[in-house]
Model the fold of this input.
Amino acid sequence: MLQYNATQANFYGGNFYDLRATGYKLMSPDSKQAQGPVVDTQEMGFPDFACVVFRLSKAVYRPLFEGIWRASFAIRWPFNTERICSTAGGSAMLGGKPTPVNLTPVERGIANATFDAYAHSLTAYKASPDVSAFSSKFEASLAGNTTLTVDEKAGYDLFRGKANCNSCHLDGRGVARTPDLSDNSNATDAGPLFTDTTSANLGLPKNPAVPFYYETTRDSLGFTPNPVGFDFTDLGVGRFLRGGSDTNPNANWRQYADKFDGFMQVATLRNVDMRPCPAFPKSYMHMVIRRASRRSSISITLATRSRSR
Done:
């Protein structure tokens, strides 16, 4: 859950780089984050969260989903639901409606509850060993099953020493900023998270290689991803606190918006290098958008993986 710590003058918790997945509604920031990509115009692009429920109602695993969650699909889907859900969010034909699938208030409530259950399912999957195996060599060394090489040990000493990385990317040990890099601190009884769950402003400039800055023209469906081009500045946490990226659940937090402009979540470094091969490009620091182009039409089943932007 996202919280403001007055003593530290910082926010703790939340998901996404701007912390907008607070967890207040679902009691889980992870579940709130799972609901984002499916209706994001830059990612899966469903025009209505009810489309996720519609897809679930057609899935072969629907009985299993209903059995686990006691979820309801008692919805009389309009005749044009498939056409709407096969149209990318933001398209002109949707008339700017945030929920273009025409449901009654009761049906909308059912769809909302089932969409929440879907998010909790994804959260459980992402937390499972199938996704979060924590299988790096560093994890094995913590368990005493292997030994770091001289170079690996030197890198870790730099991480928790002169580079001062573990002052934010907490590893459960002290910061050993002495000439001999000695660490006389006691290890914590918890595994290293490699994040302090706060946010920070590193002062990084805009990255002109990010495709989002060039997506300034209307596509064939009447959608313009970024009308302002390079005038767009991602203010991160400050933007969220003003209500610019999602609903701020605490009106009292708005007063901190100016102080948190440019702040981005301190991402965990645990198992961070999971590239399929050494030549695969790694992401560097914060990027505004990680998608090169928008599909002209989206008709997809549910994904089992979501990205954190």
About this structure: Residues 105-126 form the longest helix (22 residues). Confidence is low (pLDDT under 50) at residues 284-309. Strands lie at 3-5, 10-12, 199-200, 264-265.
